[in-house]
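Appendix B, Record 12. Input sequence as logged:
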Amino acid sequence: MDVQITMRGEFYTFDAKVDGFDENFWKKISGTIADPSTTSNKLRLTSAEINTIPSFQQSSVEFLATVPVAPVAAQSKTFGYKNAGAGNQGRAEFDITGTAFTAKVYDEAGTIIESKTINWDSGWTANESRFRVTTAGRSVTFVINDTIVAQFNDVDISPVPKQIHIKNGNADNLDIAVVSIY
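Logged structural output:
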């Protein structure tokens, strides 16, 4: 029997330097996850996908991440909230697909209900940046380095608890130093 752990109003910080790839918190879906002790204390995803084991409701997730290249042809990276087994149901994520960098929100049926293209800032390329997704009530806010880049209000987001999701569909290195949930 699978047990689903749901955290609401909790604070949690995953620090790659301290926690390594904690298999009590993360579940590898596919690909290669490098040991943080060999990658400058970063969780490194190379053609890989991971989800948290616990789920979260009405919270913020912030990634201290290094995206190696600006969005260009054939890029595929996503990070935010998504349940691995539920398709796009209730998904709220940053999405890099090819040259497009977007904030996307899906409803309970898995249908995209909001999407906004974000202009890529060259300062985010190969530099640690803070990417945050906040779900609160009927709003979803996307923030990078304390600047709101997309905000959707009065959206019908799924009340289903969601896992933290990170996917790098490329053979380059997406580095995650810290993930904070609050």
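The longest helix spans residues 16-19.
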